[in-house]
Amino acid sequence: MTGLLRRYSIRVRLIALAVLPLVLIAIVAFVSVAGVSS
Amino acid sequence: MAAAEKSALSTSVDNQSTDLKYQAADWNGWQTAYAFDVIRGVKNATADTATSRAPFLASRAQLDKKLADMSATPGLPGAEALAAVKAFHEVDAQVFAAYNLGTPAGAAQANDLVLTTEITNHTTIATALESLGAAASDRAAADAAASDAARSKVAVLVVLVVLGVLVVSLLGVLLVGVVVALVIRSITTPLTQLRARLCEIADGEGDLTVRVDEQGNDEVTSISVLVN
């Protein structure tokens, strides 16, 4: 997995790391809204 | 209409029909009372201001008001009860006229109407209102049960949604944790290896033929290529 990550520059890896929690929050919000609306 | 609202409406129908039943009993009682006053020979017993006739008329006015109020509630007061009230009114007009004839035959006819036809009319009103109330009571119970079932369903759904959100959040946190660990390792491991190699060279004890790992395509790889 580390070898795979090293294909990308450190800058790209850090940006991906910053975006990942936002994606997670979006998924949780979607699940909540879908559950409440059902 | 929601089950809870239906239940409240049915309870209101039940209460109103019971109230109307008691009002009709009061009305019928006062009619018997003023008839009895006539039989007893009370002077002007059929006058609108007489001791028993006046409460009879007041009770009748109250009954009419309640009937008018009930017309706003669906299912009340019920066609059968309404027809019996109307019949009671009509027969009372006959009773009033027969007593006012002032003859024994008229009084006998009025007595007969009060004790048979009007009692029958009152029984019809009471029975109709009772069955209306009983049906409404059953409906209220069924609607209350439906309302409870709907509330339970909502509560289960809320628990499922909360659990779902918790599970997704937990999985997300785990995923982020794993990715963070991998990214940290992907940056620090090659840097540590490179530092160790450079330390060996700096100490003057390093084997210059040993090459640093050039795997990958990042900034550390570029430095490693230069070192090699």
Give the SSE layout.
The complex is a heterodimer of chains A (38) and B (228).
Chain A: H1 2-5, H2 10-37
Chain B: H1 3-40, H2 53-70, H3 79-101, H4 104-203, H5 219-227
Helix pairs in contact in B: 1-2, 1-4, 3-4, 4-5
Protein traits:
heterodimer; A: 38 residues; mainly alpha; elongated; B: 228 residues; 5 helices; 82% helix; 0% strand
Would you kindly provide a brief summary of this structure?
The complex is a heterodimer of chains A (38) and B (228). Chain A is mainly α.
Give structural notes.
The complex is a heterodimer of chains A (38) and B (228). In chain A, 5% of the residues are buried. Chain A contains 2 helices and no strands. The model of chain A has no long low-confidence stretch (mean pLDDT 86). The longest helix of chain A is centred in the middle third of the chain and has 28 residues, at 10-37. Chain A starts with a helix and ends with a helix. With 38 residues, chain A is mainly alpha-helical. By secondary structure, chain B is mainly α. Helices cover 82% and strands 0% of the residues of chain B. Chain B is built from 5 helices and no strands. Chain B has helices at residues 3-40, 53-70, 79-101, 104-203, 219-227. In chain B, helix 1 runs antiparallel to helix 2 (53-70) and helix 1 runs antiparallel to helix 4. Chain B starts with a helix and ends with a helix. The mean pLDDT of chain B is 87. The chains are: A mainly alpha (38), B mainly alpha (228). The interface between A and B is medium-sized, with 23 and 27 residues.
Structural class of chain A: mainly alpha
- Give the structural class of chain B: mainly alpha
Alpha-carbon distance between the termini of chain A? 39 Å
Radius of gyration of chain A: 15 Å
What proportion strand of chain A? under 5%
Distance between the termini of chain B: 81 Å
Major interchain interface with per-chain residue totals: A-B, 23 and 27 residues
